[in-house]
Amino acid sequence: MADKDADIAPTRSRSRGARSRHRELAVPGYASGADAPLRATADALERARHARSIVLVEGISDQIAVETLASLQGRDLTRDGVVVVPIGGARSVSKFLARFGPAGAGLRVGGLCDAAEERHFCRELARAGYAPPETRSDLEREGFFVCDRDLEDELIRAVGPDAIEAILAEEGDLASFRTLQRQAAWRDAGFGAQLRRFLGAGARRKLRYASLFVLALDLDRQPRPLQGVLTRA
Fold this sequence. Notes:
Layout: H1 2-7, H2 12-25, H3 36-47, E1 53-57, H4 60-72, H5 77-80, E2 82-86, H6 93-100, E3 108-114, H7 118-127, H8 136-141, E4 144-147, H9 151-159, H10 161-170, H11 174-182, H12 191-201, H13 205-215, H14 224-232
Parallel strand pairs: 1-2, 1-3, 3-4
Helix pairs in contact: 2-10, 2-13, 4-13, 4-14
């Protein structure tokens, strides 16, 4: 790994730029701790009382990614009346569609879903009074965008291994990541699987890197679902 680590140096300036933007654009106040999902949802629902548009996402890291990209694009979601609501998992989407959709508040509702939950979202949108979506294109017309596997996977592919390792180095986490890569259980796994395991192992690591990865994106390599849901909101 030593030679590869040396090759990271040329990409570190990009990482430093991302960290600088992160300090300038990061949205403060995300919940942490064992009850973080409940508190994050409650806070978003309070803000949604004055919203015109709702973006439903599965968890806090997805919320951070959406809000970070909005900041990077120069959007003020509060001014625009857009609230990103972490729903605590795809299986909870029905109650949020009932609350905000055609049979509820009648707001403009969109969101992100993982590929494994695509059919579930189609069924729940139909039950909530939307035109029954049959295809991914139908879902997108209703404002819901499917991430191939999930948003974390989309970001890993879009940023790429070299830039990700430069960010890990800048954050002081590259040595720990290398340790995981050398473990027997992960040695033969692909980079994406190794990184997902690494991000999931730290209490706030996944949340912290959601923002850093978005800030490291090239403008022409933004994941389509992430860009699409913000354009629609």
